[in-house]
Amino acid sequence: MILFIYPFGRRIRAVAPKAHTLAEVMYARHGRSSQLMLAGSNILGSVISLTSNFIAGGALIALLSPFSFRQGIIAVAAGILLYTLWSGFRASVLTDFAQVVAMLGAVVIIIPVIFFAAGGPGLFETGASNLTAQQSDFFSSDAFMNQGAPYIAAVLAYAIGNQTIAQRLFAVREDLIKPTFITATIGYGATIIGFGMLGVIALYAGVTPIDGDTNNLIPQMAVTYLGPVLLCVFFIMILGSLSSTADSDLAALSSIAMADIYGQSVGKKKANPKTMLLVGRITMILATAAGLFFASGKMNILDLLVFVGALWGALVFPVIASFYWKKVTNMAFTVSSLTALAIFLPVRFEWISMSGLTGYVVDVVSIVGVGVVLGLMSFGFFGLKIARIIGIAAIVIVAPFAFGVLHEYAVLSGSLVAYSVSTVVCYLMSVRSKQEFDFSTIKDRVGDFDPVETITNDSDHLTTSK
User: Fold this and answer.
1) The CATH fold of domain 2-314
2) In the chain, what is the straight-line distance between the N-terminal and C-terminal CA atoms, in Å?
3) Structure confidence by residue, pLDDT tens digits, 53-71
Protein backbone atom coordinates (compact mmCIF):
# COMPACT_ATOMS: atom_id res chain seq x y z
CA MET A 1 0.00 0.00 0.00
CA ILE A 2 2.97 2.29 0.61
CA LEU A 3 4.28 1.64 -2.90
CA PHE A 4 0.97 2.07 -4.70
CA ILE A 5 -0.07 5.28 -2.96
CA TYR A 6 2.89 7.38 -4.11
CA PRO A 7 1.97 7.88 -7.82
CA PHE A 8 -1.55 8.85 -6.77
CA GLY A 9 -0.11 10.82 -3.89
CA ARG A 10 1.83 13.07 -6.20
CA ARG A 11 -1.39 13.91 -8.04
CA ILE A 12 -3.24 14.47 -4.76
CA ARG A 13 -0.55 16.85 -3.49
CA ALA A 14 -0.58 18.73 -6.80
CA VAL A 15 -4.35 19.20 -6.56
CA ALA A 16 -4.48 19.95 -2.81
CA PRO A 17 -0.99 20.88 -1.54
CA LYS A 18 -2.19 22.02 1.90
CA ALA A 19 -4.75 19.35 2.67
CA HIS A 20 -4.84 17.41 5.95
CA THR A 21 -7.10 14.46 5.01
CA LEU A 22 -8.40 12.88 1.81
CA ALA A 23 -11.93 13.39 3.09
CA GLU A 24 -11.25 17.12 3.31
CA VAL A 25 -10.33 17.10 -0.38
CA MET A 26 -13.48 15.12 -1.21
CA TYR A 27 -15.51 17.88 0.43
CA ALA A 28 -13.94 20.43 -1.91
CA ARG A 29 -14.35 18.12 -4.89
CA HIS A 30 -17.88 16.84 -4.32
CA GLY A 31 -19.55 18.00 -1.13
CA ARG A 32 -20.54 16.88 2.33
CA SER A 33 -21.86 13.38 1.63
CA SER A 34 -18.69 12.19 -0.12
CA GLN A 35 -16.55 13.68 2.61
CA LEU A 36 -18.56 12.00 5.37
CA MET A 37 -18.43 8.63 3.61
CA LEU A 38 -14.65 8.71 3.29
CA ALA A 39 -14.15 10.15 6.77
CA GLY A 40 -16.53 7.57 8.23
CA SER A 41 -14.69 4.69 6.57
CA ASN A 42 -11.38 6.14 7.80
CA ILE A 43 -12.71 6.31 11.35
CA LEU A 44 -13.95 2.72 11.23
CA GLY A 45 -10.69 1.50 9.71
CA SER A 46 -8.48 3.33 12.20
CA VAL A 47 -10.51 2.06 15.16
CA ILE A 48 -10.19 -1.50 13.82
CA SER A 49 -6.44 -1.02 13.31
CA LEU A 50 -6.16 0.43 16.82
CA THR A 51 -8.07 -2.55 18.17
CA SER A 52 -5.74 -4.96 16.36
CA ASN A 53 -2.66 -3.36 17.89
CA PHE A 54 -4.15 -3.40 21.37
CA ILE A 55 -4.94 -7.12 20.91
CA ALA A 56 -1.35 -7.77 19.78
CA GLY A 57 0.02 -5.87 22.77
CA GLY A 58 -2.29 -7.65 25.19
CA ALA A 59 -1.32 -11.07 23.81
CA LEU A 60 2.37 -10.16 24.04
CA ILE A 61 2.14 -8.98 27.65
CA ALA A 62 -0.05 -11.94 28.70
CA LEU A 63 2.52 -14.44 27.41
CA LEU A 64 5.69 -12.64 28.48
CA SER A 65 4.67 -11.29 31.90
CA PRO A 66 2.54 -12.15 34.95
CA PHE A 67 -0.20 -9.78 33.75
CA SER A 68 -3.44 -10.91 32.09
CA PHE A 69 -4.55 -10.08 28.56
CA ARG A 70 -7.01 -7.46 29.84
CA GLN A 71 -4.36 -5.81 32.01
CA GLY A 72 -2.01 -5.90 29.03
CA ILE A 73 -4.32 -4.06 26.66
CA ILE A 74 -5.03 -1.40 29.31
CA ALA A 75 -1.30 -0.85 29.92
CA VAL A 76 -0.53 -0.63 26.19
CA ALA A 77 -3.46 1.68 25.49
CA ALA A 78 -2.63 3.99 28.40
CA GLY A 79 1.03 4.29 27.41
CA ILE A 80 0.31 5.02 23.75
CA LEU A 81 -2.43 7.52 24.58
CA LEU A 82 -0.29 9.48 27.04
CA TYR A 83 2.71 10.06 24.79
CA THR A 84 0.55 10.73 21.73
CA LEU A 85 -1.52 13.31 23.63
CA TRP A 86 1.71 14.98 24.67
CA SER A 87 3.44 15.18 21.29
CA GLY A 88 0.88 14.27 18.60
CA PHE A 89 2.11 13.65 15.06
CA ARG A 90 5.71 14.40 16.06
CA ALA A 91 5.60 11.41 18.42
CA SER A 92 4.13 9.29 15.64
CA VAL A 93 6.98 10.16 13.27
CA LEU A 94 9.68 9.56 15.88
CA THR A 95 8.21 6.20 16.90
CA ASP A 96 7.93 5.26 13.23
CA PHE A 97 11.68 5.70 12.92
CA ALA A 98 12.22 3.66 16.08
CA GLN A 99 9.81 1.05 14.71
CA VAL A 100 11.81 0.60 11.51
CA VAL A 101 15.06 0.27 13.45
CA ALA A 102 13.47 -2.19 15.88
CA MET A 103 11.87 -4.33 13.18
CA LEU A 104 15.04 -4.46 11.09
CA GLY A 105 16.94 -5.39 14.25
CA ALA A 106 14.47 -8.16 14.95
CA VAL A 107 14.81 -9.51 11.43
CA VAL A 108 18.62 -9.42 11.53
CA ILE A 109 19.06 -10.77 15.07
CA ILE A 110 15.93 -12.34 16.55
CA ILE A 111 14.66 -14.35 13.58
CA PRO A 112 17.99 -16.14 12.89
CA VAL A 113 18.38 -16.95 16.61
CA ILE A 114 14.92 -18.53 16.75
CA PHE A 115 15.57 -20.35 13.47
CA PHE A 116 18.77 -22.02 14.69
CA ALA A 117 17.33 -22.68 18.16
CA ALA A 118 14.41 -24.52 16.52
CA GLY A 119 16.76 -26.78 14.55
CA GLY A 120 18.35 -24.72 11.79
CA PRO A 121 18.38 -25.88 8.17
CA GLY A 122 17.74 -29.44 9.27
CA LEU A 123 14.30 -28.35 10.48
CA PHE A 124 13.06 -28.32 6.88
CA GLU A 125 13.70 -32.06 6.68
CA THR A 126 12.72 -33.20 10.17
CA GLY A 127 9.61 -30.99 10.27
CA ALA A 128 8.32 -31.74 6.78
CA SER A 129 5.90 -34.30 8.20
CA ASN A 130 4.07 -31.51 10.06
CA LEU A 131 2.94 -29.93 6.79
CA THR A 132 -0.15 -30.71 4.79
CA ALA A 133 0.05 -31.11 1.02
CA GLN A 134 -1.06 -27.51 0.50
CA GLN A 135 1.35 -26.16 3.12
CA SER A 136 4.30 -27.92 1.48
CA ASP A 137 3.40 -26.49 -1.92
CA PHE A 138 5.05 -23.12 -2.64
CA PHE A 139 2.26 -22.38 -5.14
CA SER A 140 -0.52 -23.40 -2.74
CA SER A 141 -3.94 -22.46 -4.10
CA ASP A 142 -5.40 -22.49 -0.57
CA ALA A 143 -2.82 -20.00 0.67
CA PHE A 144 -3.24 -17.74 -2.33
CA MET A 145 -7.04 -17.76 -2.53
CA ASN A 146 -7.69 -17.47 1.21
CA GLN A 147 -4.97 -15.01 2.20
CA GLY A 148 -2.59 -13.93 -0.57
CA ALA A 149 -5.16 -12.73 -3.10
CA PRO A 150 -7.40 -10.95 -0.54
CA TYR A 151 -4.37 -8.98 0.67
CA ILE A 152 -3.34 -8.10 -2.89
CA ALA A 153 -6.87 -6.83 -3.47
CA ALA A 154 -6.73 -4.85 -0.24
CA VAL A 155 -3.47 -3.08 -1.12
CA LEU A 156 -5.05 -0.18 -3.03
CA ALA A 157 -7.91 0.02 -0.56
CA TYR A 158 -5.50 0.53 2.33
CA ALA A 159 -3.52 3.08 0.34
CA ILE A 160 -6.61 5.15 -0.44
CA GLY A 161 -8.76 4.54 2.63
CA ASN A 162 -6.14 4.60 5.37
CA GLN A 163 -5.67 8.08 6.83
CA THR A 164 -2.45 6.95 8.56
CA ILE A 165 -0.88 6.67 5.09
CA ALA A 166 -2.50 9.86 3.79
CA GLN A 167 -1.23 11.97 6.69
CA ARG A 168 2.34 10.96 5.83
CA LEU A 169 1.63 11.82 2.23
CA PHE A 170 0.68 15.35 3.27
CA ALA A 171 3.57 15.65 5.75
CA VAL A 172 6.43 14.66 3.43
CA ARG A 173 7.98 17.31 1.18
CA GLU A 174 6.40 17.03 -2.25
CA ASP A 175 9.71 16.48 -4.05
CA LEU A 176 10.56 13.63 -1.66
CA ILE A 177 7.32 11.65 -1.93
CA LYS A 178 8.69 9.12 -4.44
CA PRO A 179 12.04 8.30 -2.76
CA THR A 180 10.45 8.30 0.71
CA PHE A 181 7.65 5.89 -0.15
CA ILE A 182 9.84 3.58 -2.24
CA THR A 183 12.39 3.38 0.59
CA ALA A 184 9.59 2.65 3.05
CA THR A 185 8.26 -0.09 0.77
CA ILE A 186 11.63 -1.86 0.65
CA GLY A 187 12.22 -1.48 4.39
CA TYR A 188 8.79 -2.66 5.48
CA GLY A 189 8.74 -5.39 2.83
CA ALA A 190 11.96 -6.87 4.18
CA THR A 191 10.70 -6.84 7.76
CA ILE A 192 7.33 -8.38 6.88
CA ILE A 193 9.03 -11.24 5.02
CA GLY A 194 11.36 -11.66 8.00
CA PHE A 195 8.57 -11.81 10.56
CA GLY A 196 6.63 -14.12 8.27
CA MET A 197 9.46 -16.62 8.70
CA LEU A 198 8.36 -17.07 12.32
CA GLY A 199 5.16 -18.61 11.03
CA VAL A 200 7.12 -20.91 8.71
CA ILE A 201 9.45 -21.98 11.53
CA ALA A 202 6.47 -22.62 13.82
CA LEU A 203 4.83 -24.75 11.15
CA TYR A 204 7.90 -26.94 10.60
CA ALA A 205 8.57 -27.16 14.36
CA GLY A 206 5.03 -28.34 14.98
CA VAL A 207 4.20 -25.42 17.28
CA THR A 208 0.46 -24.99 17.84
CA PRO A 209 -0.82 -21.56 18.95
CA ILE A 210 -1.92 -21.51 22.59
CA ASP A 211 -5.70 -21.91 22.89
CA GLY A 212 -5.79 -22.12 19.09
CA ASP A 213 -5.42 -18.32 18.95
CA THR A 214 -3.06 -17.29 16.12
CA ASN A 215 -2.60 -13.90 17.83
CA ASN A 216 -0.39 -15.75 20.35
CA LEU A 217 1.95 -17.35 17.82
CA ILE A 218 4.79 -14.79 17.58
CA PRO A 219 5.18 -14.15 21.34
CA GLN A 220 4.85 -17.91 21.90
CA MET A 221 7.77 -18.56 19.55
CA ALA A 222 9.84 -15.96 21.41
CA VAL A 223 9.12 -17.53 24.80
CA THR A 224 9.96 -21.00 23.50
CA TYR A 225 13.26 -20.29 21.77
CA LEU A 226 14.80 -17.06 23.15
CA GLY A 227 16.92 -16.60 26.27
CA PRO A 228 16.10 -13.94 28.91
CA VAL A 229 18.17 -11.14 27.36
CA LEU A 230 16.95 -11.56 23.80
CA LEU A 231 13.43 -12.09 25.10
CA CYS A 232 13.54 -8.64 26.73
CA VAL A 233 14.91 -7.14 23.51
CA PHE A 234 12.17 -8.86 21.53
CA PHE A 235 9.51 -7.56 23.93
CA ILE A 236 10.72 -3.97 23.53
CA MET A 237 10.97 -4.28 19.74
CA ILE A 238 7.49 -5.65 19.22
CA LEU A 239 5.89 -3.32 21.75
CA GLY A 240 7.55 -0.35 20.06
CA SER A 241 6.40 -1.53 16.64
CA LEU A 242 2.75 -1.94 17.54
CA SER A 243 2.82 1.32 19.52
CA SER A 244 4.02 3.14 16.40
CA THR A 245 1.08 1.88 14.37
CA ALA A 246 -1.40 2.59 17.14
CA ASP A 247 -0.26 6.20 17.65
CA SER A 248 -0.56 6.70 13.89
CA ASP A 249 -4.20 5.63 14.16
CA LEU A 250 -4.77 8.08 17.00
CA ALA A 251 -3.16 10.88 14.99
CA ALA A 252 -5.27 9.94 11.96
CA LEU A 253 -8.50 9.96 13.95
CA SER A 254 -7.67 13.30 15.52
CA SER A 255 -6.91 14.75 12.06
CA ILE A 256 -10.30 13.63 10.79
CA ALA A 257 -12.07 15.07 13.82
CA MET A 258 -10.20 18.38 13.59
CA ALA A 259 -10.32 18.93 9.83
CA ASP A 260 -13.43 17.08 8.64
CA ILE A 261 -15.76 17.44 11.59
CA TYR A 262 -14.82 20.63 13.44
CA GLY A 263 -12.95 22.53 10.71
CA GLN A 264 -15.52 22.05 7.97
CA SER A 265 -18.42 22.68 10.35
CA VAL A 266 -17.29 26.14 11.45
CA GLY A 267 -15.43 27.05 8.27
CA LYS A 268 -11.74 27.49 7.53
CA LYS A 269 -11.70 31.18 8.41
CA LYS A 270 -13.56 30.77 11.71
CA ALA A 271 -11.71 27.70 12.97
CA ASN A 272 -9.77 28.24 16.20
CA PRO A 273 -6.47 26.26 16.25
CA LYS A 274 -6.63 25.83 20.05
CA THR A 275 -10.14 24.43 19.83
CA MET A 276 -9.01 22.13 17.04
CA LEU A 277 -6.26 20.72 19.25
CA LEU A 278 -8.76 20.16 22.06
CA VAL A 279 -11.10 18.34 19.66
CA GLY A 280 -8.19 16.19 18.47
CA ARG A 281 -7.13 15.23 21.97
CA ILE A 282 -10.67 14.37 23.05
CA THR A 283 -10.95 12.23 19.93
CA MET A 284 -7.79 10.33 20.91
CA ILE A 285 -9.26 9.56 24.34
CA LEU A 286 -12.58 8.37 22.89
CA ALA A 287 -10.82 6.29 20.23
CA THR A 288 -8.64 4.61 22.84
CA ALA A 289 -11.72 3.74 24.89
CA ALA A 290 -13.41 2.29 21.79
CA GLY A 291 -10.29 0.30 20.91
CA LEU A 292 -10.14 -1.13 24.42
CA PHE A 293 -13.80 -2.11 24.28
CA PHE A 294 -13.42 -4.02 21.01
CA ALA A 295 -10.01 -5.46 21.92
CA SER A 296 -11.50 -7.14 24.99
CA GLY A 297 -13.27 -9.50 22.58
CA LYS A 298 -9.87 -10.88 21.37
CA MET A 299 -10.92 -11.02 17.72
CA ASN A 300 -8.58 -12.47 15.10
CA ILE A 301 -6.20 -9.74 13.91
CA LEU A 302 -5.86 -11.04 10.35
CA ASP A 303 -9.64 -11.25 9.94
CA LEU A 304 -10.02 -7.66 11.13
CA LEU A 305 -7.40 -6.30 8.72
CA VAL A 306 -8.72 -8.19 5.71
CA PHE A 307 -12.27 -7.05 6.48
CA VAL A 308 -11.43 -3.36 6.66
CA GLY A 309 -9.31 -3.61 3.51
CA ALA A 310 -12.23 -5.12 1.61
CA LEU A 311 -14.59 -2.53 3.07
CA TRP A 312 -12.41 0.29 1.75
CA GLY A 313 -12.47 -1.36 -1.68
CA ALA A 314 -15.90 0.19 -2.25
CA LEU A 315 -14.29 3.64 -2.21
CA VAL A 316 -11.12 3.10 -4.23
CA PHE A 317 -12.32 3.84 -7.78
CA PRO A 318 -14.60 6.76 -6.82
CA VAL A 319 -11.76 8.40 -4.86
CA ILE A 320 -9.07 7.90 -7.50
CA ALA A 321 -11.37 8.92 -10.35
CA SER A 322 -12.29 12.08 -8.46
CA PHE A 323 -8.68 13.28 -8.71
CA TYR A 324 -8.35 12.66 -12.45
CA TRP A 325 -11.76 12.67 -14.15
CA LYS A 326 -13.71 15.92 -14.39
CA LYS A 327 -17.04 14.17 -14.93
CA VAL A 328 -17.33 12.33 -11.60
CA THR A 329 -20.25 13.76 -9.64
CA ASN A 330 -21.15 13.72 -5.98
CA MET A 331 -24.15 11.53 -6.76
CA ALA A 332 -21.99 9.03 -8.66
CA PHE A 333 -19.48 8.90 -5.80
CA THR A 334 -22.14 8.37 -3.15
CA VAL A 335 -24.38 5.91 -4.98
CA SER A 336 -21.52 3.76 -6.28
CA SER A 337 -19.91 3.48 -2.84
CA LEU A 338 -23.15 2.65 -1.04
CA THR A 339 -24.19 0.14 -3.71
CA ALA A 340 -20.81 -1.60 -3.51
CA LEU A 341 -21.04 -1.72 0.28
CA ALA A 342 -24.59 -3.11 0.14
CA ILE A 343 -23.47 -5.97 -2.11
CA PHE A 344 -20.11 -6.54 -0.38
CA LEU A 345 -21.58 -7.30 3.06
CA PRO A 346 -23.88 -10.22 2.09
CA VAL A 347 -21.17 -11.73 -0.13
CA ARG A 348 -18.41 -11.34 2.47
CA PHE A 349 -20.43 -12.78 5.35
CA GLU A 350 -22.31 -15.30 3.20
CA TRP A 351 -25.72 -13.99 4.18
CA ILE A 352 -27.06 -15.30 0.88
CA SER A 353 -26.67 -18.72 -0.70
CA MET A 354 -23.92 -18.90 -3.30
CA SER A 355 -25.31 -21.96 -5.01
CA GLY A 356 -26.73 -21.85 -8.53
CA LEU A 357 -27.21 -18.61 -10.44
CA THR A 358 -26.21 -16.33 -7.55
CA GLY A 359 -22.78 -17.90 -7.33
CA TYR A 360 -22.18 -17.51 -11.06
CA VAL A 361 -23.24 -13.85 -10.95
CA VAL A 362 -20.81 -13.24 -8.08
CA ASP A 363 -18.09 -14.96 -10.12
CA VAL A 364 -18.66 -12.69 -13.11
CA VAL A 365 -18.67 -9.54 -10.97
CA SER A 366 -15.54 -10.73 -9.11
CA ILE A 367 -13.69 -11.42 -12.37
CA VAL A 368 -14.40 -7.84 -13.44
CA GLY A 369 -13.04 -6.83 -10.03
CA VAL A 370 -9.73 -8.55 -10.84
CA GLY A 371 -9.41 -6.36 -13.93
CA VAL A 372 -10.30 -3.25 -11.93
CA VAL A 373 -7.67 -3.95 -9.24
CA LEU A 374 -4.84 -4.63 -11.69
CA GLY A 375 -5.95 -1.80 -13.96
CA LEU A 376 -5.92 0.74 -11.13
CA MET A 377 -2.53 -0.48 -9.91
CA SER A 378 -1.15 -0.04 -13.42
CA PHE A 379 -2.82 3.33 -13.94
CA GLY A 380 -0.82 5.00 -11.17
CA PHE A 381 2.49 4.06 -12.77
CA PHE A 382 1.83 3.76 -16.50
CA GLY A 383 -1.24 5.85 -17.32
CA LEU A 384 -4.72 5.14 -18.66
CA LYS A 385 -3.88 3.37 -21.93
CA ILE A 386 -1.66 0.71 -20.35
CA ALA A 387 -4.10 0.35 -17.44
CA ARG A 388 -6.96 -0.46 -19.82
CA ILE A 389 -4.89 -3.08 -21.64
CA ILE A 390 -3.78 -4.75 -18.40
CA GLY A 391 -7.28 -4.63 -16.90
CA ILE A 392 -8.95 -6.19 -19.94
CA ALA A 393 -6.16 -8.77 -20.34
CA ALA A 394 -6.51 -9.75 -16.67
CA ILE A 395 -10.25 -10.35 -17.09
CA VAL A 396 -9.74 -12.46 -20.22
CA ILE A 397 -6.93 -14.54 -18.68
CA VAL A 398 -8.57 -15.07 -15.28
CA ALA A 399 -12.12 -15.80 -16.49
CA PRO A 400 -11.64 -19.46 -17.59
CA PHE A 401 -10.02 -20.39 -14.27
CA ALA A 402 -12.13 -18.27 -11.91
CA PHE A 403 -15.65 -18.76 -13.28
CA GLY A 404 -17.49 -21.25 -11.11
CA VAL A 405 -14.81 -21.09 -8.41
CA LEU A 406 -14.42 -17.57 -6.99
CA HIS A 407 -17.72 -17.52 -5.08
CA GLU A 408 -16.37 -20.34 -2.88
CA TYR A 409 -13.88 -17.88 -1.36
CA ALA A 410 -16.04 -15.36 0.48
CA VAL A 411 -13.20 -13.11 1.66
CA LEU A 412 -11.69 -12.71 -1.80
CA SER A 413 -14.93 -12.49 -3.78
CA GLY A 414 -16.35 -9.94 -1.31
CA SER A 415 -13.37 -7.66 -1.84
CA LEU A 416 -13.44 -8.03 -5.63
CA VAL A 417 -17.19 -7.39 -5.72
CA ALA A 418 -16.69 -4.13 -3.81
CA TYR A 419 -14.14 -2.93 -6.37
CA SER A 420 -16.17 -4.06 -9.36
CA VAL A 421 -19.56 -2.69 -8.38
CA SER A 422 -18.27 0.73 -7.28
CA THR A 423 -16.27 1.08 -10.50
CA VAL A 424 -19.07 0.08 -12.88
CA VAL A 425 -21.74 2.17 -11.13
CA CYS A 426 -19.49 5.24 -10.78
CA TYR A 427 -18.47 5.03 -14.44
CA LEU A 428 -22.00 4.59 -15.79
CA MET A 429 -23.32 7.49 -13.69
CA SER A 430 -20.45 9.79 -14.66
CA VAL A 431 -19.72 9.05 -18.30
CA ARG A 432 -22.72 11.06 -19.56
CA SER A 433 -22.33 13.79 -16.97
CA LYS A 434 -22.02 17.32 -18.26
CA GLN A 435 -19.89 18.34 -15.30
CA GLU A 436 -16.44 19.72 -16.13
CA PHE A 437 -14.87 20.20 -12.71
CA ASP A 438 -11.99 22.68 -12.42
CA PHE A 439 -9.36 21.00 -10.23
CA SER A 440 -7.52 24.30 -9.71
CA THR A 441 -10.33 25.45 -7.41
CA ILE A 442 -9.47 22.80 -4.80
CA LYS A 443 -6.31 24.68 -3.78
CA ASP A 444 -8.44 27.64 -2.72
CA ARG A 445 -11.02 25.55 -0.85
CA VAL A 446 -8.56 23.36 1.08
CA GLY A 447 -5.78 24.86 3.13
CA ASP A 448 -4.30 25.75 6.49
CA PHE A 449 -6.51 26.50 9.46
CA ASP A 450 -3.71 28.47 11.11
CA PRO A 451 -3.71 32.30 11.06
CA VAL A 452 -2.26 33.59 7.79
CA GLU A 453 1.07 35.37 8.08
CA THR A 454 1.65 38.20 5.61
CA ILE A 455 4.79 40.20 4.89
CA THR A 456 4.62 43.80 3.67
CA ASN A 457 7.72 45.46 2.25
CA ASP A 458 7.98 49.17 1.46
CA SER A 459 10.85 51.62 1.03
CA ASP A 460 11.17 52.36 4.75
CA HIS A 461 10.58 49.13 6.67
CA LEU A 462 9.65 45.42 6.66
CA THR A 463 6.66 44.46 8.79
CA THR A 464 5.17 41.10 9.64
CA SER A 465 1.58 40.84 10.75
CA LYS A 466 -0.82 38.09 11.75
Assistant:
1) Sodium/glucose cotransporter (1.20.1730)
2) 40
3) 888 888 888 877 888 888 9
